[in-house]
Write a structure and sequence with these properties.
The structure holds two protein chains of two kinds. Chain A contains 20 helices and no strands. Chain A is mostly helical. Chain A has helices at 14-19, 23-28, 35-46, 53-59, 65-78, 84-93, 97-110, 116-122, 128-140, 148-157, 161-167, 172-178, 184-197, 203-210, 215-227, 235-240, 249-258, 262-266, 272-290, 294-319. Chain B is mostly helical. Chain B folds into three domains: 9-153, Leucine-rich Repeat Variant (Alpha Horseshoe), CATH 1.25.10; 154-237, Alpha Horseshoe (Leucine-rich Repeat Variant), CATH 1.25.10.10; 247-313, no CATH class. Chain B has helices at residues 13-18, 22-28, 34-47, 52-58, 64-77, 83-88, 95-107, 114-120, 126-138, 145-155, 159-165, 170-176, 182-195, 201-207, 213-225, 233-237, 247-256, 260-264, 270-288, 290-313. Classes of the chains: A mainly alpha, B mainly alpha. Chain A binds chain B through residues 35, 38-39, 42, 65-66, 69-70, 72-73, 76-77, 97-99, 101-102, 105-106, 108-109, 127-129, 132-133, 136, 159, 182-183, 185, 247-248, 251, 254-255, 258-259, 262, 265-266, and chain B through 213-214, 217, 220-221, 224, 230-235, 237-239, 268-269, 271-272, 275, 319-320.
Chain lengths: 322, 320
């Protein structure tokens, strides 16, 4: 899309450009500095009909994200079936979430049933935006779930937790799959529903949730686990096995052993650097006086003790957010 | 606080009260010990109108604790002559100062205090808004009309009443979307969705670019209830702030100070590499001389720079 380079910002009249049928200029305006001009350009392109489609398909390969987003919006509004395959390519190959999401929604707007086989698996994607987008798009295409799995995935994608809860134990295996979502709020929602259902089959998922890196998910898991039949004395064991997000005690100790002070700095103590600088100054002066090795022999027993001290400090810190 | 490490003599408030030493008591207002500060506030309040002039002057002080204390003392004195000075304090950049100012205005019992307090209902800080609503009640103010009540309920965070008000609540809810507390923004977005009016669309699209991920997600759900075309949502989300390390900075740092580029990327071992490299450089200088050392080290620096650049480039983005 070399034509996009050298674009000069101004206050363009998108209505005039549309009337003149100047599609290349409208596409350039999709990357205008003023966001409202971008909206207007995308809206105008959406009313240009089939003549704009070839250039818009070309714009899908622009390296500029706003251009790709605007082109997808316009293609969704034009609803030309020629766009289905290139838009599917975007879902499969674009790396940016917003562009993928726009492509999913555009497929729903274009209205081709050919998109359904691609959209149904997206209901179980690990990203909630893509799941939600797929649910909206499938709704536009008049798709109805054909089996229990698709029904549950559709409800989860719509974040309709109440309906999921009504499905009872049948929903548990599908909730387990969606639990991979990287958003803690979704994981919290899943664990809460499991707790409300009180399904004994959900114990494995509760155990995973008890080890979650998010403290909110862990707390919801504690509440849910009781209802799912986990023994209360198992809960602390699971929580203790959680992924620690605080400073690594071993790293703190190692740093303080070799570079006294940096370990303290690593665990968030502002005075770590002054300690380090003082230590290094003393070490260099001692090396000048005693040679290169003897000062280390004296220093290491001391830094070993302080390394152990840092280890325990860091360990206590990583427990703070249980 | 670093400043707390510097020992400072606490003022003897008892002695200052005995001497009715107004400048001394005003000086004590900036004490970091809240007990001393509070004693000075009460003492100045007991002195009454004689302290009002010096206290109003103290409001112009640079010290935040001094301003807070002076407003507190004026609240205790309840001299309506201070209303205008207190109203000016509602432009203070410190939210605690503004909060204290609206509380003080509530103590004045003056009709003049109502206009600035009404402005306080639109403050981006929830404490200031809440204080304004309570102070308005204290001054006997009753909101007139639906919109007036909506601003009052917004300040009191009465979400159920806001929802029930429907369209009249839109303006205060839009204002709440600027709140510094993300939890307030989440609640405001939810209520906008429950009201389901199309006019909320542009504000919800702006909220898609919020710094908080939960606000963004709630805005997605709410916008669907307000008739926002789904195709507009990805562009709204694209406005979100992106916290990503700059690969060029990582590479540059690793070239000039090998190891610190890794540190910039959050790798705890970056500083270790930096130290080890420093030691190696010193030993090489001693053994090989400066020029030969750099001939040996530069290719290594370039390699480390490229590695840090590559690591930064492939770092996963913060989830939407």
């Amino acid at each position: 899309m070399t034509r996009l380079h050298g674009f000069v910002s101004g206050v363009p009249d998108t209505v005039h450009l549309k009337e003149a049928g100047d599609i290349p200029s409208l596409i350039r305006h999709l990357n205008h500095a003023d966001p409202s001009v971008r909206w207007h350009a995308a809206d105008a392109l959406g009313t240009c009909g089939g003549t704009a489609v070839p250039l818009l398909l070309e714009a899908l390969h622009s390296r500029l994200v706003p251009v790709r987003l605007g082109a997808l919006e316009a293609l969704g509004a034009i609803r030309d079936l020629r766009a289905v395959s290139p838009v599917i390519d975007i879902i499969n190959h674009d790396t940016l979430l917003e562009v993928q999401w726009a492509a999913v929604l555009a497929l729903g707007e274009i209205g081709s049933p050919d998109a359904i086989p691609l959209l149904v698996p997206l209901l179980r994607d690990t990203n909630r935006y893509l799941r939600y987008g797929a649910a909206i798009a499938l709704g536009r295409l008049g798709w109805q779930p054909q089996n229990e799995a698709d029904t549950v995935y559709l409800l989860i994608a719509r974040q309709d937790w109440e309906s999921v809860r009504h499905l009872g134990a049948a929903a548990t295996p599908y909730l387990s799959i969606i639990f991979r979502d990287n958003d803690p709020a979704t994981r919290e929602g899943i664990v809460t529903v499991l707790g409300q259902m009180g399904d004994l089959q959900a114990q494995a998922l509760c155990q995973t949730a008890l080890k979650d890196k998010s403290p909110y998910v862990r707390w919801k898991a504690v509440l849910a686990s009781m209802n799912c039949g986990l023994a209360s004395y198992d809960l602390p064991l699971m929580v203790a096995a959680r992924e620690r997000t605080g400073p690594d005690p071993a790293a703190a100790a190692l740093l303080n052993f070799f570079f006294l002070g940096i370990g303290y700095n690593y665990i968030g103590k502002w005075w770590g650097f002054p300690v380090f600088m003082t230590y290094m100054s003393i070490l260099v002066i001692a090396q000048l006086a005693m040679g290169p090795f003897l000062p280390y022999l004296i220093a290491y027993p001391i830094t070993a003790i302080l390394g152990i001290h840092t280890y325990y400090l860091a360990e206590r810190m990583s427990d703070a957010g249980m | 606080m670093l400043l707390d490490l510097i020992p400072k003599r606490k003022p003897d408030v008892g002695a200052l009260i005995k001497k009715r030493d107004i400048p001394g008591l005003i000086g004590a207002l900036s004490c970091r010990d809240p007990i001393v500060q509070s004693a000075a506030v009460h003492a100045l309040g007991d002195i009454g109108p004689a302290a009002v002039g010096p206290l109003i002057l103290a409001l112009k002080g640079k010290n935040r604790l001094l301003r807070l204390g002076a407003i507190g003392a004026l609240a205790k004195i309840k001299d309506s002559g201070a209303v205008s000075a207190l109203a000016d304090m509602m432009k203070d950049p410190g939210s605690e100062v503004r909060w204290q100012a609206v509380i003080a205005l509530g103590e004045m019992g003056s009709r003049e205090a109502i206009a600035p307090l009404l402005l306080g209902l639109e403050d981006p800080d929830k404490y200031v808004r809440f204080g304004s609503a309570l102070s308005l009640e204290k001054n006997g103010y009753q909101p007139s009309g639906e919109t007036g009540w909506a601003w009052h309920y917004a300040a009191m965070q009465d979400w159920d009443r806001l929802r029930a008000m429907g369209v009249s609540a839109l303006a205060p809810l839009f204002s709440l979307l600027r709140d510094t507390d993300s939890d307030v923004r989440v609640r405001a977005v939810r209520v906008l969705g429950e009201i389901g009016n199309r006019e909320a669309g542009p504000a919800l699209i702006r909220s898609l670019g919020d710094a908080d991920r939960q606000v963004r997600w709630e805005a997605v759900l709410a916008s669907q209830k307000c008739g926002v075309p789904p195709m507009y949502l990805p562009r709204g989300l694209y406005q979100r702030p992106r916290i990503q390390k700059n690969p060029l900075v990582a590479g540059f740092l690793n070239f000039l100070l090998p190891g610190l580029g890794y540190g910039y990327l959050g790798k705890w071992w970056g500083i270790m590499i930096f130290q080890i490299e420093l030691q190696i450089t010193l030993w090489l200088w001693k053994a090989e001389g400066e020029n030969n050392s750099y001939l040996l080290l530069y290719p290594l620096y370039i390699l480390l720079a490229v590695h840090a650049w590559y690591l930064a480039k492939n770092m996963p983005e913060e989830p939407a």
